[in-house]
DNA sequence: CGGAGTGTTAGTCG
DNA sequence: CCGACTAACACTCC
């Protein structure tokens, strides 16, 4: 579910509330997402203080006082939700699957307790997400596999042009390729192509310079705006405070299948598989090349 | 009611 | 190296 703006929102939220806190207890309700073996995982976290929270692409990295890192990948449906003591809800029955006022729920797999009584819940309906403890070297190796991080000084226009160079895959697939550009997922890839007026199946290498510049600008402006609005909640993304993101109000193509294009007011938003992923675009104003 | 589709990505195969 | 395709899982939608 969460892409760069959503993970960044969670990172910022969590930084405000758990930095400097000591983990006193680690409850593993389901071992599937825990990649280290439950006992090892708990030992690595017990009595450690959260020193810093970083992010690369859609991966969150919590630095521990031991010098190790807790990696958290939310994949499609993962959630990290923080609850402090005064808001703690006494256990009871579950309402809907995503009712965060009643944690833990049936998709809560791990609960961390902090010394001040607050708790952090890892929920993941589809169990694709993972939690992994790594040392600094292993962390750096994983970070090195990621491509350029948008909204940082690494991600310059020249870098972007270089990434697109000689790529015969559809531009959308390039945008989604985490080893080339970190953090863009299906929603933002479609939104970026729309904003740039580029048909998402166009081969990256066959785009002209003006289109590439438009794409570069769209990546920066859309991700920045999405972070400002705390991400997009389409189904089950929630911030660390259990709140929805508001960028859904600004989506131009995602979730607008068969609706009229906001820009040309002629086209009807189409949905076609491109690079194996459902892709929304306006067949009228997203230029088809070649 | 059954099958297709879902915001991710690691792994396989050609 | 590159790109296409699939599985992992549980739920919703048509």
Automatic annotation (TrEMBL):
Q: Which SUPFAM superfamilies match?
A: Glucocorticoid receptor-like (DNA-binding domain), N-terminal domain of MutM-like DNA repair proteins, S13-like H2TH domain
Cofactor entry: Zn(2+)
Q: Which GO BP terms apply?
A: base-excision repair
Q: Name a GO molecular-function annotation.
A: damaged DNA binding
SMART domains per the UniProt record, alphabetical: Fapy_DNA_glyco, H2TH
Q: Which residues form the FPG-type domain?
A: 252-287
Please list the residue ranges annotated as the Formamidopyrimidine-DNA glycosylase catalytic domain.
Answer: 2-129
List the catalytic activities from the record.
Answer: 2'-deoxyribonucleotide-(2'-deoxyribose 5'-phosphate)-2'-deoxyribonucleotide-DNA = a 3'-end 2'-deoxyribonucleotide-(2,3-dehydro-2,3-deoxyribose 5'-phosphate)-DNA + a 5'-end 5'-phospho-2'-deoxyribonucleoside-DNA + H(+); Hydrolysis of DNA containing ring-opened 7-methylguanine residues, releasing 2,6-diamino-4-hydroxy-5-(N-methyl)formamidopyrimidine
* InterPro entries on file: FPG_cat, FPG_Glyclase, FPG_N, H2TH_FPG, Ribosomal_uS13-like_H2TH, Znf_DNA_glyclase/AP_lyase
Keyword Glycoprotein included in the entry's annotation:
no
A Pfam family matched in the record: Fapy_DNA_glyco
**Keywords tagged on the record:** DNA damage, DNA repair, DNA-binding, Glycosidase, Hydrolase, Lyase, Metal-binding, Multifunctional enzyme, Zinc, Zinc-finger
Q: What is stated as this protein's family in its record?
A: Belongs to the FPG family.
Share what the entry says about its subunit structure, partners included. Monomer.
Q: What protein name applies here?
A: DNA-formamidopyrimidine glycosylase
